[in-house]
Design a protein that fits this description.
Elements lengths: L2 H191 L12 E8 L2 E8 L6 H7 L4 E5 L2 E12 L4 E9 L9 E3 L4
Antiparallel strand pairs: 1-2, 1-6, 2-5, 3-4, 3-6, 4-5
């Protein structure tokens, strides 16, 4: 084959290939256009449907608004009519009020006049009542003063009689006590002449010295065989404790006060013979 033939063959092949490429590109572009047109048509249809729905919605809202407007206009007309009625009613009430104010002024004037007359009459009545009350009060005070004086007089007489009786009774008791005291004093003198000591009448008590300070000493009671009332015994007469230790008798302590909570007797030191009293010393009303 000649070179020219080969060239024509190659050119034919190139042209055929280019035709195929151009045809494929043209078909693809045409197909894209169809797809785009279909999408555009679908979008247009959707938009039209949306616009129609919006149109129907707006038409329905318009109808609603028109109905509301009609109802509002009707209510407005009704309110205007009612307002007119109220205005007319207010005018009528204003006229009635004006008439009533005139009547009230007349009544107030009459009431003021009557009030003035009543005040005058009340003042006179009050003055008369005050005078009557004052007179009655003076009379009542006089009666009460008289009754009180009579009652006080009766009470004083009764009290004087009672005091006289009490004095007479007391005088009799004093004379009896003085006689008894004289007899007792005589008996004590006779007993003392025969060797009796006042301390011999002391209750039978024993104890221990717990504290000793100056002329005061405290004795804790440890033995009370007769279960005597120590407080009463102290009040009844003077008696004492003999204080002693192992070395012997140290002195006397005389009771002043009994402390029941501690079962102890507070004493004054009356006599010292064997040295100062110390804690632990023994005490007894009856010499062992």
């Amino acid at each position: 084959m000649s070179p020219i033939g080969r060239v024509f063959i190659i050119l034919n092949l190139l042209l055929a290939g280019g035709f195929v490429v151009v045809s494929g590109t043209h078909l693809q572009t045409k197909n894209n256009y169809k797809l785009q047109l279909a999408d555009a048509n679908k979008k247009s249809a959707d938009e039209i449907a949306k616009l129609n729905a919006e149109k129907d919605k707006l038409a329905a809202e318009r109808n609603t608004f028109e109905n509301a407007k009609s109802a509002s206009e009707e209510r407005a007309n009704q309110m205007l009519n009612a307002n007119q009625l109220l205005t007319d009613e207010n005018k009528r009430y204003a006229q009635q009020l004006s008439s009533m104010e005139g009547d009230v002024k007349k009544l107030l004037a009459a009431a003021d006049s009557a009030n003035t007359e009543m005040k005058s009459a009340f003042g006179q009545a009050k003055a008369a009542y005050a005078m009557a009350v004052a007179d009655q009060k003076a009379k009542d005070d006089a009666v009460r003063a008289k009754d009180a004086a009579e009652a006080e007089n009766r009470d004083l007489k009764t009290e004087v009689a009672s005091l006289k009786s009490t004095i007479e009774t007391r005088d009799g008791s004093i004379k009896s006590l003085e006689s008894e005291r004289s007899q007792l004093g005589l008996l004590v003198k006779v007993a003392e002449a025969n060797g009796f000591l006042r301390t011999m009448a002391a209750p039978n008590l024993s104890g221990l010295v717990t504290t000793s300070s100056g002329n005061l000493v405290t004795i804790q009671i440890t033995d009370n065989p007769g279960n005597v009332d120590i407080k009463s015994e102290i009040e009844r007469g003077k008696w004492g404790f003999a204080i002693y230790d192992a070395s012997g008798y140290k002195g006397e302590a005389y009771p002043e006060r009994y402390e029941a909570s501690a079962n102890a007797v507070l004493c004054k030191v009356g006599l010292l013979k064997g040295g100062a009293f110390r804690e632990g010393d023994k005490a007894a009303t009856k010499t062992p």
